[in-house]
Amino acid sequence: MSLDVQIETLRTDLSAAIATAETEQAVEAVRIAALGKKGSVSALLASLGTMPPEARRTAGPAINGLKNEIAAEIEKRAEELRARALEARLIAERVDVTLPVRPAPTAEGRIHPVSQVWDEITAIFSDMGFRIAEGPDIETDYLNFTALNFPEGHPAREMHDTFFMAPGPDGVKKVLRTHTSPVQIRVMQKSKQKPAAPYLTEAMAPPIRVIMPGRTYRHDSDQTHTPMFHQVEGLVIDKSSHIGQLRWVLEEFLKAFFEVESVVTRFRPSFFPFTEPSMEVDVQCDRSGSEIRIGEGADWLEILGCGMVHPNVLRNCGLDPDVYQGFAWGMGIDRLAMLKYGMPDLRAFFDADKRWLDHYGFKPLDLPTLFGGLSS
Fold this sequence. Notes:
- The chain has 2 domains: 3-92; 113-360, Bira Bifunctional Protein, Domain 2 (BirA Bifunctional Protein, domain 2), CATH 3.30.930.
- The chain is built from 12 helices and 11 strands.
- It has helices spanning 3-20, 24-35, 40-46, 53-92, 105-108, 113-127, 141-144, 181-191, 243-258, 311-316, 333-341, 354-360; strands at residues 131-132, 138-140, 164-165, 174-176, 208-217, 228-238, 265-272, 275-286, 293-294, 299-309, 325-332.
- A hairpin with a 6-residue loop joins β8 and β9 (293-294).
């Protein structure tokens, strides 16, 4: 086969291969096959060394012309494919500027109602001068029951109410706390301990005014009860505490929490081992509509339990009941959230359903304040 025929055949084959290449990788493969070290055009150039001088004078320009022509076609095709890929990418990544701006993460996220109500409660009592105290979820049987004047054999110690745990190496019986009342014992006991540093001299000594929010656990589960729930208790210890102060504190809290101008409360006799006298507190409300309205109407709703701290509890904490007296109260944070924000089922609080949280949750930057509105 003559050299001219070889060149023409290569030109036709390579041009066809370049034209049918659909990707930059395919074009690169054609370039290597033609112009690479072992490529077909490179092989023709290498054959120039075996030709006589007269033949080289005509073959050299022809082969180099083929090389330059194929290189130009390859570059042109590669540029076409790059432009096509860019256009496809621009179409795929095109932004519709007429669409609304996507909300920021701070706008999409939601605060759980329990966390919101927890903050609302602490904001109200902090404004009244109460401090916040906390304690462990796993408590000793003594702090959870005995120190709080629960006698041996009391029904609250039974398995159907309490999650009992195996004793530790020291033999001390432990439970998942059934209320936050053990924190009251810890606070009062600490008030009688010698301070660890000079700046703690008056830190925990009476008068004591604290609230104790936290998780509690009971062996119970239905529409209005869950095995784990949240509770807040309050404690005031002083030399002149009385029920009138207790009533004022609770009514001021209810007005601020439910964001109403006035409330009417009703105190009914009850029984708790750690208070004497003990009372259940009802608040006046209206049940006529689809939601409960606090501060109006002619109905009553039980809202919390309270009472004067039992003298035995004071003695168990090293305080003289002839010198000090106090009052305490406790209420469910989850139940307060249900009443204020109209949530019908307590179990939904713990289902981790994003749809529920999107509906009932709160914007993360809307922090509850007394001057700005608790639920603004």
